[in-house]
Amino acid sequence: MKVTITGIKADIGSVGGHIKPSTRVLEAVKNYVEQHHKGVLIDFRISYTGDDISILCTHTQGICSEKVHKLAWDAFKAATEVAKDQGLYGAGQDLLKDAFAGNVRGLGPAVAEMEIEERPSEPFLFFAADKTDPGAYNLPLYLAFADPMYCSGLLLSPSMFKGFTFRIMDVAYTEADRIIDLNAPEDLYDIAALLRDTERFVVEAIFSRETGEQVVAASTTRLRNIAGKYTGKDDPIMIVRVQGNFPATGEVLAPFHLGHYVAGFMRGSHVGPLMPVTQNSTISFFDGPPIVSCAAYCVHEGRLTSPVDAFDHPFWEYVRHEVAKKAIEIRRQGFFGSAMLPYSELEYGGLVKKLEILEPRFVNRAHTQEV
Ligand code: F6R
Ligand code: MG
Ligand code: MG
């Protein structure tokens, strides 16, 4: 059976700063989808990660379905009214346009979706990150799909010998979706050369070269490109099919033990380690650290099982301690050097203003003569 798995997430307001949505707002999203999904969706789950609410759903309408996207948009709109009523901070923050226009891409909410031919058993992972941006998934995806040091299946499972195709988007280009398909392993160094630049090049999808099937769908939204100014970080979601011809669940999870440094953290303007957290986790230290959660599901004829919380295991307790140490270590350096993002990536305009104010006080002196 052909099924589409769609994840749509938005920050529509939170309690006590940019920390987590209120119970009433979550209920409002859930109730709206519950009441309006008949004839549109087969199944759905609502969750939150930090201040972002995700609607994960299944249906047979294909990707970019107007009906599905409108349902999510309307649910977020309805819940925004509750957020306003409660005086939540940043109510409706990610709903950047007033009117729905066909699909939610380009309107603010992040989308990750793929249409699949369901396997007899179809396990998949749903990742949601907060206080970071889509480039946060570049390294874990590279390691899980292209590096046998992390993905032993590339050596041990013949159906993975041909490797995977990475579809990478240039998210700095705003005229159109600028994408390139590169094949691992032949194009490995080209893939690495692009993915190292996490602010510009982002993995949008990955395909099996053995079967042609899509394995990964990740959100690539850059809110700043839509709004033209800072409106919050882009907090990416991602769907990854696992097992069989694809990497095993544990191979996809493994790279997250690194707690690699990503863009985001306080004011979307710093560098911090990505901490794998349990589902429905909140935000704390320095508006962070950047977090990622992972819900594991099976889907059958579009019906979703209950989620298993993939980072809720004693192993990840140890990892979280290690990542907390990395977070403290880089924070000791405050705003200096690589602790704060480069000028072009700062999400607040304060430093631009400062330079404008200082401009008239600069003087041009002749080059000092060398002796
Ligand atoms: C980062 C984030 C927060 C805010 C910070 C200031 O993505 O959401 O770190 O940038 O709390 O928020 P405002 O400017 O809304 O007071
Ligand atoms: Mg967020
Ligand atoms: Mg936010």
Could you characterize the architecture of this molecule?
It is a single chain. It is built from 9 helices and 16 strands. It is of the alpha+beta class. The protein has one domain. Strands 5, 6, 7, 8, 9, 10, 13, 14, 15 and 16 form a 10-stranded mixed β-sheet that branches. It has a 4-stranded antiparallel β-sheet with strand order 2-3-1-4, covered by helices on one side. β8 (201-208) and β9 form a beta hairpin. The protein binds fructose -6-phosphate and magnesium ion (2 copies).
| Net shape | globular
- Listing every helix as H and every strand as E from the N terminus to the C terminus, the arrangement reads EHEEHEEHHEEHEEHEHEEEEEEHH
Low-confidence stretches: none
Approximately what portion of the residues adopt beta-strand conformation? 25-35%
Indicate the mean pLDDT: 95
Q: List all distinct small molecules, including ions and cofactors, that are bound in this structure.
A: fructose -6-phosphate, magnesium ion
Gap from first CA to last CA: 79 Å
Structural class: alpha+beta
Give me the count of strands. Answer: 16
